[in-house]
């Protein structure tokens, strides 16, 4: 869910529109703001996924 609704931005291109597994890091999903400056409303899904994978 977090990757599908990530607002955008990557290290190589701050104006990209989504999460790209080749240019983004998983830690990008955990921030309240995306790299492009938009609010990341689905960062809670990323936290839930990390807890799920850890257990």
- Structure classification: mainly alpha
**What is the tally of helical segments?**
1
Uncertain residue ranges? none
Shape: globular
- Residue-averaged pLDDT: 92
Q: Fraction of residues in helices?
A: 10-25%
Order of helices and strands: H
- Distance between the ends: 19 Å
Outline the biggest β-sheet: none
What is the oligomer described by this structure?
single chain
Number of DSSP-assigned strands:
0
Radius of gyration: 11 Å
- Amount of beta strand: under 5%
Which key phrases capture this entry?
single chain; 55 residues; mainly alpha; 0% strand
Structure, explained:
The chain is mainly α and 55 residues long. The protein is built from one helix and no strands. It is globular and about 35 Å long. The two termini are 19 Å apart.
Helices, strands, pairings?
Blueprint lengths: L42 H12 L1
Quick recap:
By secondary structure, this protein is mostly helical.
């Amino acid at each position: 869910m977090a990757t599908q609704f990530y607002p955008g931005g990557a290290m190589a291109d701050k104006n990209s529109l989504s999460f790209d597994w080749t240019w983004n890091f998983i830690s990008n999903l955990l921030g309240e703001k995306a790299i492009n400056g938009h609010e990341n409303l689905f960062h809670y899904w990323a936290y839930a996924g990390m807890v799920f994978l850890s257990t």
